[in-house]
Structure formats: structure tokens, C-alpha cells
Design a protein that fits this description.
Order of helices and strands: EHEHEHEHHEHEHHEEEEEEHHH
CATH class: Alpha Beta
Strand content: 15-25%
Distance between the termini: 23 Å
Number of domains: 1
CATH superfamily: Aldolase class I
Number of helices: 11
Radius of gyration: 19 Å
Strand order of the largest sheet: 7-8-9-6-5-4-3-2-1-10-11-12
Length: about 325
């Protein structure tokens, strides 16, 4: 479906839970956040109904996120439901990877086509400091399993934070040279827990690229990495993988935004950083059918702004895990 700014909206990101088994420093406080009561969270069947309605409007790609989506009980049922919808041609997931290795084969059989891992450090000690609870070995095992099962492209999402992981950027580039992994450096966004210190710890994609060019020389532009995101990709000559940059702050990509976000409690957000949400849960639980849900989703698409306004600061009380990464 075409929005008011002539963008084709064909991508739905679904947060199936606001809970997470890690406590990343830029995402949530050490004690975590107050969880939404279970009855307020959509059931997997309700998520499936929304996907079906959205597919009638041209949604073809679905990404399952969280919180950490793999802690959601019976999550495979949702993948299988989406797989059965012939209008959906791509089912992906963003995960911290802690539980992925043991579930990978079942996920692929249930319809998973590709996977993004959130991984901000290749140092086990630094990884533990960033995530507070994470075990690097478990995540790495999941990454290796994804490659083994050919869930390509396998992407690593690296939130770039000055003073935290800025000395490891070269290590990620070397990793992309040796393995078929697609590293995406993501500019730190002033959302939730990281809002107070985002300015002082922010590193632009331009600065990262300058740093990498000083060490590695010239990168080739890469245009063949499958995905729905806004990353600009590059490749070292002869490398098995690529590096990419997601420039949400320094060079916003709103003119090409093709997505909607559904929160775990059934609120449809036309823009990650916008304040508008369309309630799908209440109408659905009052008996709204597929056509009515599609009309509500169509209304949300028409509300998509021309661009985000992150420069005005974060005013939502929720953190990223409560909105959907």
C-alpha cells in the first residue's frame, strides 16, 4: 500500500514480547523494566490475524522481534501461521542469539528465512559488560548454526557506542572478511535508557568509515545484500561478508521507510520515533474481523510522517524492548 508520501509500505515488524533475557546498557536499566501484564499482550493467534489482515494491504515481509522473541512460549506456532500465508514471502527474526542455536533448525522448518543477531562486541568480557547477563559463547554458537543452516544473509547488528565498543570496529571488519557475515554498524539513537547519554557517546557512520578506511583502505560498494532495511553496504575486496551502516541520526532514511511496527500489546506504530499508535487489540478483542483490521492498518499507513524527529528528544516513558527493536 502506498502512503501519503509515495512510499510502498510492505514490511511489518512484530514485537512478540517486551521481555528480554539480557539487560543491555543502552536499552534498559540493570533491574529491567516493569513487564506488561500477560493478559495485555497479544496472543500468537492474534498476531497471526493481524499479519493476515496486513497481507491484504500488500505487506509481504514480516520480522519477529522483541524484547527477545525466542523467550516467547510456543513462538514456532506464529512462524508456522505466517508461513501458511501465501502473500508473505519473507519471515525473519532479530534476536540476541542466546537461545538461537537450540531452536535454529525448528525455526527454519517453521518458515524462518534469515536472521539478524544483536552483537555489540566480539570480546566475551566486553560483551558481558554491555549485556550485563550475556554469555558470548552461546551467541556465537547460534551465529555458527545460522550459517550452517544457510539462513543467509546472516547479519550482525552492532550499536556503535563511543568508549564502549569503538575499538572493536576493525575486528568486525576482519570478521566480515573471513566469514559470510554482514555487519551493520547502527548509530546510537536517543531512545529509552540511552537517551540521557546518547550525545556524548554517539559516533556517526562517517566517523566509523573514516576510521576503517585508515586501517583497511578502500571498500567496494555492495548492492546485493538481501533485506528490507536502510543499510548502505560495503565489502573489502575478496571478503566473504560485508559491512553496512544504518544512519538513523546523521543521514535519516525516512524517504525510503517501508515499515510498520506492532508492539507486543497490540499498538501499531507508523513510525518508531513518532507518538502516534493505532490500537488493534481492543477492536480485535471486541470482534473485529479481517476486513476491519485491514482498514485500521490502512489508516495507520496514512498516518506515517514524512520523517522522524529524533532531534526533539525522547518523550516516551518506554524503552526499546517495550516498543519493538
Amino acid at each position: 500500500m502506498i502512503d501519503n508520501h509515495q512510499r510502498n509500505i510492505n514490511y511489518l515488524r512484530i514485537s512478540v514480547t517486551d521481555r528480554c533475557n539480557l539487560r543491555c546498557v543502552y536499552c534498559m536499566p540493570p533491574e529491567g523494566v516493569k513487564h506488561t501484564p500477560h493478559w495485555e499482550i497479544l496472543s500468537l493467534e492474534e498476531f497471526g490475524r493481524i499479519v493476515d489482515a496486513a497481507s491484504d494491504l500488500g505487506i509481504k515481509k514480516v520480522r519477529i522481534t522483541g524484547g527477545e522473541p525466542l523467550i516467547r512460549k510456543n513462538i514456532l506456532d506464529l512462524f508456522e501461521h505466517i508461513l501458511a500465508n501465501p502473500k508473505i514471502d519473507d519471515i525473519s527474526i532479530t534476536t540476541n542469539g542466546v537461545l538461537f542455536a537450540d531452536m535454529a533448525k525448528d525455526l527454519k522448518n517453521a518458515g524462518l528465512t534469515r536472521v539478524n543477531f544483536s552483537l555489540d562486541s566480539l570480546s566475551p568480557d566486553n560483551f558481558k559488560d554491555i549485556t550485563r547477563l550475556g554469555k558470548f559463547d552461546a551467541v556465537w554458537k547460534g551465529i555458527e548454526k545460522a550459517i550452517e543452516l544457510e539462513l543467509h544473509p546472516v547479519k550482525l547488528n552492532v550499536v556503535a557506542v563511543r568508549g564502549v565498543n569503538d575499538r572493536e570496529f576493525g575486528d568486525f571488519v576482519r570478521l566480515s572478511r573471513e566469514m559470510p557475515l554482514h555487519v551493520r554498524f547502527i548509530e546510537l539513537m536517543p531512545i529509552g535508557e540511552c537517551n540521557p547519554w546518547a550525545v556524548g557517546n554517539f559516533i556517526s557512520a562517517e566517523e566509523i568509515m573514516q576510521q576503517l578506511q585508515e586501517e583497511f583502505g578502500t571498500f567496494d560498494i555492495e548492492t546485493k545484500v538481501t533485506g528490507n532495511g536502510p543499510a548502505k553496504y560495503y565489502r573489502l575486496p575478496g571478503a566473504k561478508g560485508t559491512i553496512g551502516f544504518i544512519t538513523a541520526i546523521s543521514e535519516h532514511f525516512c524517504a525510503k521507510c517501508n515499515r510498520l511496527r506492532l508492539t507486543a500489546n497490540g499498538q501499531l506504530r507508523p513510525c518508531l520515533y513518532g507518538k502516534q499508535e493505532i490500537d488493534l487489540k481492543t477492536p480485535m478483542r471486541r470482534g473485529a474481523g479481517r476486513q476491519e483490521l485491514a482498514e485500521l492498518i490502512a489508516g495507520a499507513i496514512k498516518l506515517k510522517p514524512d520523517q522522524h524527529h529524533m532531534d526533539q528528544g525522547w518523550t516516551d516513558r518506554r524503552v526499546m524492548s517495550q516498543i519493538g527493536g
